[in-house]
Amino acid sequence: MATISQKPVLISGAGIGGTLLARALQSHNIPFQLYERDANRHARAQGYRIRMSDEGLSAIESVLNSEDFTTFKDGTSTTGSGGPYHFDAKTGDRIEHGSTGPPGPPPSKPDTNSAPHAPDAPAPTKPMLSGPTYGTARGWLRDNLLTTIADSIHWDKRASSYSLTESGVVLNFTDSTTSPEGSMLVIADGSQSALAAQLGQGEIRSYDTGARMIHGQTTSKAFRELGTGVFFVRDGSHEAGPLSLITNIRPGGELDDDSVEFGWVFVGGPGSFAPPNEDFSLIGEPAAELSRELTKDWSPKFKGIFEQQNDAQAAFLKMSTAWPRGLPEWKSEARVTVLGDAVHCMTPAGGVGANTALQDAAFLGKLLGERGGWGEDVVAKYEIEMRQYASEKVKASFEAAAKQFSITELGGKKLDP
């Protein structure tokens, strides 16, 4: 059991991994301080929905009390189980993926008697998630986790480095301030983390696959004609390479509610498209306009998804990944460790990245809870097991994306088949 004088665990990054870890520490009465670079919880869109399965659900259930977990579970929805259904973007016709035979059964029509749902992140042809999958909005999940820890969050604090002391660690921020001394630091601030780069001394890094994405949200009425299930819409006529729309439309009453927005991801392989002026931070109307320009010749069946989108929610994204042949070894530091995208970012194929970040947070929280706080052996135990299960997920995610989007090299290195 933690004591009042115990130094806090410092967490950099208030994404779903960092916030679930904070909740785990709170449940064990271990003090913590959570630092987030965003100005507030609604400073930016939180991206596409999360496909959750046994790993993610078990992680959350192990941290939250029964009442909070019930609240969380009530906010999820079962994903559309049909498909994947493949369509030609120009003609609007159904095609049989990888076959010259006739199309399979048609997509299911909306079932208005089902619980309300909305689409989530893209899935591969063969699912990588075990057990029944559920969908939840990333922003809703984070807000739900933040409810009991608001007093320990520091917004608008971008960490630039950390400094080890004789008895702990201190975070340094870009505004020239520092944190109080903590018992340990957990790096959970994403794939471009300066802290992870410092810890790994160049070994912890993400690789640009060359594939590009635009994430968006569109009113549900634009999806009604499609039915329900997982949809891959492909444009093979684009000179620079194929373009695809991926979405998962689940059955439910929200399809009849014009105020509800469903999510989608527009994807192109390496060299297929780029943002104006190579501005990879493109968000909002410019990102939405780019998606509309690239799909202006598509069938009306799909064009409405881009034309009726909420421009404010559009965001251009690079598709990045950790090294798919296994996470690297780095010199372990007993006072500092890393979780989520900061150490094992993954392609969106299969939706495994978010689940693995939640698994990290629950596992590390469990180890700290068993010790009543920081201990000399906690980081080593965590990293040995995390490296094993995360490496498997990165590999599976990358292989699915490489096959779908013709990715053949990373960081200038040609990959063996």
Strand arrangement within the widest β-sheet reads: 6-5-13-14-15-12-16
Protein structure class: alpha/beta
Rg measurement, Å: 21 Å
Helix count, DSSP H or I runs of 4 or more residues: 10
Poorly predicted tracts of residues: 99-106, 108-129
CATH class division of the largest domain: Alpha Beta
In the CATH hierarchy, the architecture of the largest domain is 3-Layer(bba) Sandwich
Number of strands: 19
Distance between the termini: 51 Å
Indicate the percent of residues in helices.
Answer: 25-40%
CATH superfamily of the largest domain: FAD/NAD(P)-binding domain
Strand content: 15-25%
Order of helices and strands: EHEEHHEEEEHEEEEHEEEEHHEEHHHEE
Number of structurally distinct domains:
2
Task: Let me know the average pLDDT.
Answer: 86
- Main sheet makeup: 7 strands, mixed
CATH topology description of the largest domain: FAD/NAD(P)-binding domain
Shape: globular
